[in-house]
Amino acid sequence: MEDDTKNLKATRQHSDAAADLQKMGYKQEMTRSRGLSHILFMTLAIMAVPYGLAAPIATSLVAGGPATMIWGWVLVSILTLPLALSLGEICAKYPTSAGAYYWCFRLASPRHRMLLSWINGWLTMVGVWTISLSVTFGTAQLIVAGAGIYLPDWVVKPWQTYLIFLGVTGVTVVFCVFFNSILPTIDVISAYWTLFGVIVILVCTSVKAAAGRHSAAFALGHFDPTPSGWTPGWAFFIGLLPPGMVVILAQNLGRSPLTAYTFAAIGMTWPKKCTTLPRAITWSIPIGFICGVFFLVPILFTLPDIATLLAVTSGQPIGLLFQLIMGSKGGGFGLWFIIFGIGMFCAISISCAASRATWAFARDAAIPFHRTFALINNRLSPSDGGIPLNAILLSTTIQLLLGLIYLGSSAAFNAFVGVAVMCLPTSYAMPVFISLLNGRRSVADSPFSLGKTRGMVLNSIAVVWALFELVLFSMPAVLPVTPTTMNYASVVFVAFGLMSAIWYLINGRYHYKGPEIPEDVKQESFD
């Protein structure tokens, strides 16, 4: 009887979600099975705070060390919150997996909405492909770092790292294709793994501290930008790459260097109710911030010699860092394994989210061979309404091709992260900026309203910070620049920009009609 009640409730929720989506012009083709708790679990899984702060840690060590790591995390967390709130306000009114390009289309004037949504959609696509790539590739580099604990003299070749990356990507594809029904469970496991992992790392590093302990002045204030070659002020901002990855990961819910990397995915999930996702997006920032503080602080108080860490042959010092702190290979490998597990969980979740975003854009005829990539395969996961198999394969293929950049540049990982941190915040800021230009009239009745004055302030901060990121993360991490240390993020960014422009001239302007919208909205006009 209890099971029948639950099933009836689930059926009603599914029907309500389908009806809401129908009002926005879409037919529901895949099941929306995630409530607030599942979305928050997915947030933790996608944000993967310890992984996001650990995988690109070399960048923060080069660009200042402890002060950059901790205060960069604080700064990016604060500056990301206005963007999360702004996105929450918009997606509360337009909750769809299409995300920012759909919002641009609905918020912009009829004269410009087609082109703006096209540009935004391609920014989103490039962003989700590269952020997913950065996670899978970063996890491959973590495997190299873990192997380095027991094989310190192994000089890994680029092609070997690429083969490991192929293996990691293969695992994510298997889960996305064959285990779609258990992905919410994987997110729950990932969340618990992350939370307990942070506690274990905090306790173990604080107790052992085999490399010595530092004063609060060092842990919270030591700043040496010399290895980067940049001036002190700019070096600090260059070191924000890891936090930026976390932020971009967090931002992909609605649809970050150290701190920016971690929050990069706020916009990549699909809600059941229009108020669920805004709350998840908003709460993801303080939850992620607290998690990051508990992860960073004990490491900073027990940090080994920075020069020794930066001299590691693999270029990925996290394995050696844990080994030196724990005073043994086994202890270091144990802490490394926690980060590796978080990376794999994150790779699975964000690859799934990237494929959903790809499918949504193909559904609106915005990419080549869109009919093929918009198909839903009902054979592999019929109980969940099917999976976007072709979109999964497309997203994966593009990532594999971009991964070849590593064969020519050891700085490829930063480039992948940089492209994502350039594309995604820009795509998220576009609808916020359009809303500002419209005097915020379109979001005045949002179920998650920020209010007129407060909304103007928060929206403005979000847009300015996104523009600053666009410039910041196209810069190389170190000077002088060589072919192998060059940040190729701007090259990839421009290349995809040209590709989207050419495709628009050839096909898009004739066939792209924008995302589907209700008939009553099609008659609207804007000043």
From TrEMBL:
GO biological process: amino acid transport
GO cellular component terms, A-Z: membrane
Keywords tagged on the record: Membrane, Transmembrane, Transmembrane helix, Transport
TM helices/strands, residue ranges: 36-58, 70-88, 121-150, 162-183, 190-211, 231-250, 280-301, 333-354, 387-407, 413-437, 457-479, 485-506
Gene3D superfamilies: Amino acid/polyamine transporter I
Name of the protein described by the UniProt record: Amino acid transporter
Membrane topology value: Multi-pass membrane protein
Cell location: Membrane
GO MF annotation list: transmembrane transporter activity
Keyword Transmembrane: yes
PROSITE patterns per record: AMINO_ACID_PERMEASE_1
InterPro entries per the UniProt record, alphabetical: AA/rel_permease1, Amino_acid_permease_CS
